[in-house]
Amino acid sequence: MTIPSRRRFVTGAGTALAVAGLGLAGLVAGGGLAPAAAADQVSVQLDYVVRGNHAMFFVGRKKGLFAKHGIEVTAIRRGTGSANTMRMIGNGNAEFGFGDLPTLAIARSQNVPVVALAAVNQKSPMAMISIAAKHKLTRPQDLKGLNFAVQPSGSTYIFTRAFFAANGMSEEDVKRATVSPPYENYLLLGRVDAVPGYVDAEVPELEAKAGGPGSLSILLGSDWGYKAYGSGLLTSEKMIAEKPDLVQRFVTAYLEAFRSVIENPAEAVDIVVEANPEYAPKRDVLLKQIEADLASSFFSDDTRANGIGAMRTETWEETAKTLLTQGAMKQPIDVSAAFAGQFVKAANPLRR
After folding, report:
1. Tally: H helices and E strands in the chain
2. 256-271 as b/e: b if 16+ CB within 10 A
3. Are 254 and 60 in contact (CB under 8 A)?
4. Which end of the chain has the least Cβ crowding within 10 Å, N or C?
5. Beta bridge partners of 176
């Protein structure tokens, strides 16, 4: 990659200078300057409304990390669920996206050409959630007979099916209510008894409304047989095939922003709120969302050895096996094509 220098000095008319180390011959006769190369413009498609683990995109843009690598992020668009995000990235509606990686595996089984670039959540942050004072959950079987709300598509439904199967249950064991998100509101209103959700998204927001820490009863999927990656950075097969240098620069900048979020989550939240002023009342919730990831899902043995965002074949195989054996995915996939770990490796990210 070549980076244009910001200043070029002319010692006399008609003199051409070679700028050592940058590979530029920017001066023309008469002391004129060649135009600087334009930054590559890209857009980002999120999986849902803005959450703490989306902070890397806003931090990278605000702190000039994408710009440093010759990239202009023109838009960071909110989404309506990981399944839709996969289709949009596969169709080329955005260059990069963020979403649930098990949903990416299922999308690939349906011939959607999306590829994971980094596993932000090294294990799934999904859980079954209830109001503790009403329904204490100590094991999956405590869900039997409860009024249970879930959207019939998307990452939470995939998790629900796999979680039930892993624990010898089915959807017939609960009284399922089909609702539209945000269905956690139905839990607060007492219209349902339990919902699936993310400990780094819904849980901090629900706790803030339900009475604070300890007000919720939570069964973390990774503790009860749901062995899978959580959410991550993704792109399309076409981007990797046609613009691998751009993909590498984006991943490198993203991981630099990821490090910044880890080292200063409060600053990251301030940047998110600056870009999304309507989230100012939720500043504390956004911070708790990042803190939940710091405590439970950003790090693993793999990130300690290979850096944040790292992925390995064995974990992808485990993710695919979980989805297949528990009925969430109908046919196997080539896991080696589902992720491209070389970009994280080349970025040499923070090891923690």
Report:
1. 15, 12
2. bbbbbbbeebeebbbb
3. yes
4. N
5. 148
140: preceding bond cis by omega (within 30 degrees): no
Q: What is the DSSP letter of 201?
A: T
Q: Which residues pair with 150 in a beta bridge?
A: 178
Collect all residues with Cβ–Cβ distance below 8 Å to 256 and sequence separation of at least 6: 60, 65, 349
58-61 long-range contacts, CB within 8 A, separation 24+:
58/268, 58/271, 58/272, 58/275, 58/276, 59/257, 59/260, 59/261, 59/267, 59/268, 59/271, 59/272, 60/253, 60/254, 60/256, 60/257, 61/275
* Ranges of H-type helices in 72-201: 82-90, 101-109, 155-166, 184-188
Q: What are phi and psi of 152, to 5 degrees?
A: -75, 30
Q: Give the total residue count for the chain.
A: 352
All domains of the chain, ordered by start, with CATH?
Answer: 40-123+229-347 (3.40.190.10), 126-223 (3.40.190.10)
CA–chain centroid gap for 300, Å, is: 16
Residue-wise pLDDT tens digits, 43-80: 999 999 999 999 999 999 999 999 999 999 999 999 99
